[in-house]
Amino acid sequence: HISHTCCATGLCEFRCHLVGALSFSPVLGSHPSQHKVKQCDPLSLSATMTHQYPALTAEQKKELQEIAQRIVAPGKGILAADESTGSMAKRLNPIGVENTEENRRRYRQLLFTADQRIDSCIGGVIFFHETLYQNTDDGTCFSKLIKDRGIVVGIKVDKGVVPLAGTNGETTTQGLDGLSERCAQYKKDGADFAKWRCVLKISETTPSELAIFENANVLARYASICQQNGIVPIVEPEILPDGDHDLKRCQYVTEKVLAAVYKSLSDHHVYLEGTLLKPNMVTAGHSCPTKYSSEEIAMATVTALRRTVPPAVTGVTFLSGGQSEEEASVNLNAINTCPLVKPWALTFSYGRALQASALNAWRGDLNNEKAATEEFIKRAEANGKAALGKYESSGSGAAAGKSLYVANHAY
């Protein structure tokens, strides 16, 4: 008879016990004293279970940490230009532009060819698979163009969210199959970091323990595979802003989710110095009647991070989560001026909050490209300053102040 006891350290201790005759099957036809059961040594089992098999060499670790540090160098953040083909339709259709491969290429070209002013505030660009292999008008590959500017190239590697059966509409993220081979190819093609998005939502019954555990585990598995291929993983457990929950509830859920994520990263032996975290800011639900100040949002956000994110993590690159361009900059600035000790770089990984005004100015017209690029540069510079706690809001134009919230946002 084997009993299995969990000890306080979380290690499992197995003990073998010799028990009475009834524990043995009568068909053996012999007295239990004739059966020897070897006594297990709990110490040897514990030692075996915690044995460290090196996952990465010192050289691999050094490369990963250096990549992560370059992306979140002081005053720099990430341009998320990894919208899927379907998501690009939601960006282009409202401005009267057909969602074709050529129009997507033209739009991203105007972002990537912005002048040298963005070099001091954009440390990394996340590409969608299609975009990684597209070229500028003169035939230069987008990834080479970005790399030659000293900006790190990233790639979205997840395959989208799928339903988690037996839950109240919760999801997990697919894409682990073949991920190692894809990462190896992307590394050859110039990508040095990756992104994988998991989605959780707040309601009376969610997020469930199952959804938290499953998404934390899939993020850790993805992160481990990326690092084996020399790619820095951005870990993105997004808690959607949908709902009427208050700031306190979002903070509580954010803490529980991040605690689970870092437990899972530890279980999977992920090298934290070679990772970045892409979380939501702690904000009230979009339908919450109470409106909170940027200082309150900053305090709740930094408190949640301090309770859950190890100081070894190189940087935190916030998602904008449907905030207006101006809100995203003001809140990031407040986070960086929050009077608490913050051991990580706290910066941005924005899609809509860097691009909304640019899209609005462009509208697919060749004559508007310069104006659109100027709008993008303006937001990039604003967020670069916010990442240093040096942004001063000048109010906002109509486009910059417009909410970018999309219910149940799929990427």
From TrEMBL:
Q: Does the keyword Cell wall biogenesis/degradation apply?
A: no
The chemistry this enzyme catalyses reads: beta-D-fructose 1,6-bisphosphate = D-glyceraldehyde 3-phosphate + dihydroxyacetone phosphate
SUPFAM superfamilies associated with the record: Aldolase (SSF51569)
Return the broad EC class: lyase
PROSITE patterns in the record:
ALDOLASE_CLASS_I
Q: What is its EC number?
A: 4.1.2.13
* InterPro entries, A to Z: Aldolase_I_AS, Aldolase_TIM, FBA_I
Please provide the record's keywords in A-Z order.
Glycolysis, Lyase, Schiff base
Single GO molecular function: fructose-bisphosphate aldolase activity
A Gene Ontology annotation in the biological process aspect, one of them, is: glycolytic process
> Which pathway or pathways does this protein act in?
Carbohydrate degradation; glycolysis; D-glyceraldehyde 3-phosphate and glycerone phosphate from D-glucose: step 4/4
Family of the protein in this entry: Belongs to the class I fructose-bisphosphate aldolase family.
- State what protein this is by name: Fructose-bisphosphate aldolase
Source organism per UniProt: Amphiprion ocellaris
